[in-house]
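Researcher: Structure prediction, please.
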Amino acid sequence: MSIYRQFCHEITDESGKLKKLTTDFPDNFNFGYDVVDKIAEKEPEKKALVWCNVENEEHIFTFADIKKYSNRMANVFKDSGIGRGDRVMLILKRHYEYWFAAVALHKLGAVMIPATHMLTVSDLVYRLKASKVKAIACTAQNEVPEKIKEALGQTDLNAKLWCVQPTIDGFENLTEKMNCASEEFERIETAATDPMILYFTSGTTGYPKGVIHDFSYPLAHIVTAKYWQHAEENGLHFTVAETGWAKASWGKIYGQWLVGSAVMVYDFDNFEPKQLTQIINKYGVTSFCAPPTVYRYLVRKGIPDMPSLRHASTAGEMLAPEVFRKFTERTGLSLCEGYGQTETTLLMANFDENDAVAGSMGMPSPFYNIELRGKNGEKVEQGQIGEVVIVPDKNGRQPGVFTGYLDNEEQYNYVWRGGVYHTGDAAYMDENGRYWFHGRFDDIIKTGGFRVGPYEIENVLTEHTAVAECSVIGVPDSLRGQAIKAVIVLSNGYSKTKETELDIKEFCNRKLAEYKWIRIIEFVDEMPKTISGKIQKTVLRKKD
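Model: Predicted structure follows.
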């Protein structure tokens, strides 16, 4: 029986559909000891991590292995002075050492700060200064050690530096240190309310915010893994995300191990659809989660048979209905979209693949009490646009929702105004109870007295073969207040001509209500994006 049942209560209807899930955990709950080590004690040979890379290296780790190596790494960290509450940054890409380090830091009660190897020196300087890290463990690849040393030189921090695998000047070799350390590690007392993980948001409207989650956070991913991704006991789940992003917490460790599924990790730099499908087939992946970009490539390049795959999910950006349709036709699997934030876990999803609808956010998670509210805090009616908010339980606390912004109590209080958590995302609910994303409130376009969400127009734009990427914004217009403008990166084989512009306009405007018509099109070579790949609408608006 999966260990997750020890920490939650599930209420299902007569058909077995989950109606409500509540957590029940001790005050000192710690994922490292109470999940990883407990599974290792009961089922030491149970598969936890299947890892391979582009060089055809392969490692399969059991839970006994994860316990052993995390204990060794915890001893290395402890001997270097890392303890409860200390902040340690991990820039480990998809290297298997990430899983040892993450569990080790949890056991110590330290605060893990995952970060992507794509950060620039200035990105690092900001994050290092903001978080006041005590140590950094990093990859030797992509000039990351050099960038870290340069960034530290621009701060007054004296952080301990480790690098995995090869020895790098100025860094201790964490892999060698780990292999020489003791496998024994006595439990250190921690509290479920202690800070466990610190993620920096992508910063679409300003400097990235530091989002802090406590030690109960892994339990909030039970619904993510079991009911959305359909990770299963003794299955193999494959989420594509790199460990520097919050999506790694969603799909590469917590919920999956809690429900008894092993995690598939493919360590690569350059995305190649064919390689991903080869991994799925070689190792017998049972559930797969990737952003829509991956599915778009798969559809364009041709999807091979994937007989082991039983479920596919997606999140993070817009999914074109045509991609949904073609993927389903080819595989027989519906793409189940999900929605959430770095500040939360999964908030909404298409939980039932037989009922999944392309473009829909799906239904609210049974783990949260979600409502749509108007600008004055009132509930909105079916079909009306409102803000997605989370109403906490009667104790005023909601596991899975972040516990604070780093050194920004004012912003934290603002998003919790009125006793509910404000996501800032606009949506509406249809007659079937499905939710549909309407855009960020900051992005809503007010044109001719109407409120238009850019998402629905972008959804239509992506159906045109000439459109590789797009973003829709409102620009000043003397007649309408704002006019709808589409900024487009063209697909290969298309030119920035008046004919192309007219063809795209006519194609889209035939499918849109008149008040949603695209009035202006600008072709660009590339979009301004955050380090996480999100298009920065604020930058596009500033150009106008």
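Model: The domain at 457-542 is CATH 3.30.300.30 (GMP Synthetase; Chain A, domain 3).
Researcher: Thanks, that helps.
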